[in-house]
TrEMBL record:
The keyword Transmembrane helix applies. F(1)F(0) ATP synthase produces ATP from ADP in the presence of a proton or sodium gradient. F-type ATPases consist of two structural domains, F(1) containing the extramembraneous catalytic core and F(0) containing the membrane proton channel, linked together by a central stalk and a peripheral stalk. During catalysis, ATP synthesis in the catalytic domain of F(1) is coupled via a rotary mechanism of the central stalk subunits to proton translocation. It is a multi-pass membrane protein. Its main location: membrane. The gene is atpE. This is ATP synthase subunit c. The keyword Lipid biosynthesis does not apply. GO terms for cellular component: plasma membrane; proton-transporting ATP synthase complex; proton-transporting two-sector ATPase complex, proton-transporting domain. GO terms for molecular function: lipid binding; proton-transporting ATP synthase activity, rotational mechanism. Belongs to the ATPase C chain family. Pfam families: ATP-synt_C. It comes from the Bacteria.
């Protein structure tokens, strides 16, 4: 790997940690429960990542199908939009759960 690239990555990592770590040690008024709520919200938000990957795969499949069979583009597009809506519903549920964990 490029040494300059690795130096930049390491520098960014150290600078990020220097900003984040003091918040862990000098946080006042926060309890363990607040930290666990934030951790749970972050874990619930992983569902949004899965939905994004699912929509990308759906779009890729639709583009490949339209490329192979252009006369069926209308039907393929309708099916793709339906599948994207179903995949997005999982992301919306994960987002709602994470927001509920943070604010309730």
């Amino acid at each position: 790997m490029n040494t300059e690239f690795m130096t930049t990555v390491f520098t960014n990592y150290v600078l990020t940690l220097s900003v984040i770590l003091p918040n862990f040690f000098f946080a006042e008024g926060l309890t363990t429960g607040d930290g666990l709520k934030a951790l749970g919200a972050g874990m619930a938000a992983i569902g949004v990542l899965g939905a994004g990957i699912g929509q990308g795969i759906t779009g890729q499949g639709a583009c490949l199908a339209i490329g192979r069979n252009p006369e069926l583009a209308g039907q393929i597009t309708k099916t793709m939009i339906l599948a994207a809506g179903i995949a997005e519903s999982g992301a919306i549920y994960a987002l709602i759960i994470s927001l509920l964990l943070i604010f309730v």
